[in-house]
Amino acid sequence: NLFASSLPGLTLWLDGNSVDSDHSTADSIANGTAIGSWKDRSASTNHAVQGTVSSRPTYLANSLNGMGVLSYTAGQSSEISGDSSIRTIVAVLRQATAQTAATKPFGGNMFTTTSGGTFGLQRQGSGLIDSGSSSKSYAVLTLQMAAGNYAIYVNGVEKGTDTDPNVPAAFNKIGNDFAGQIAEVVAYDRILSTGVREKLEGYLAHKWGL
């Protein structure tokens, strides 16, 4: 299992199966509910919030492996406090079939989907790492983003690296211009070792039935 204290450096943890961050009790949220606050399970309490009802994501109950996920349109977004310390993001998500745009699901200046319908990693103004893996199906997506050490992994498989010497801008949104479903987001202020990364990817893959 994963706990807030399991691995050092946890800065953000949003779990679609525990929108209220009370992991001891199953969510009792009606399918189709607009979610104004997606609570952070890390010690940072950096909750993803949206005050405008029409801009809130929709809760989809029993959506993936019997658990809830949050669904965003390109016009819906949740706000988080800008975090410039994040260097690794591991997420379970899929892009809507109808969306073909390159998007930045976590705000800032990092694109993580391509116009070709694949997962990718590109700091705005730099070269693109195209995973070649479809973004239209749920996957465990790992983004590694440190100066000189960029990499993307899809379902535990390395899909490309880059030596961009710059660090990413602060991540400040969930959803942003992305359309699709997000089940879980876990972020760290450091690059994870191979063994730790694989354990986290394995945990998420098992949990979400991928």
Folded structure, characterized:
The chain has one helix at residues 194-207; strands spanning 10-15, 37-38, 48-49, 58-64, 67-72, 78-83, 88-95, 110-113, 118-123, 129-134, 139-146, 149-154, 157-162, 171-174, 180-188. The chain has 210 residues and is mainly beta. The strands form 4 sheets. Strands 1, 4, 5, 7, 11, 12, 13 and 15 form an 8-stranded antiparallel sheet that branches. A hairpin with a 4-residue loop joins strand 8 and strand 9. The longest helix is centred in the C-terminal third of the chain and has 14 residues, at 194-207. The chain is globular. It starts with 9 loop residues before the first strand and ends with a helix. The model has no long low-confidence stretch (mean pLDDT 95).
Based on Cα principal axes, name the global outline. Answer: globular
Span between termini: 16 Å
Residue share in helix: under 10%
SSE sequence, one letter per element:
EEEEEEEEEEEEEEEH
Return the structural class. Answer: mainly beta
The share of residues in extended strands comes to 35-45%
Radius of gyration, rounded? 15 Å
Q: Residue-averaged pLDDT, rounded? A: 95
Number of helices: 1
Q: Which regions are unreliable across 5 or more consecutive residues at pLDDT < 50?
A: none
Q: Tally of extended strands?
A: 15
- Sheet with the most strands? 8 strands, antiparallel
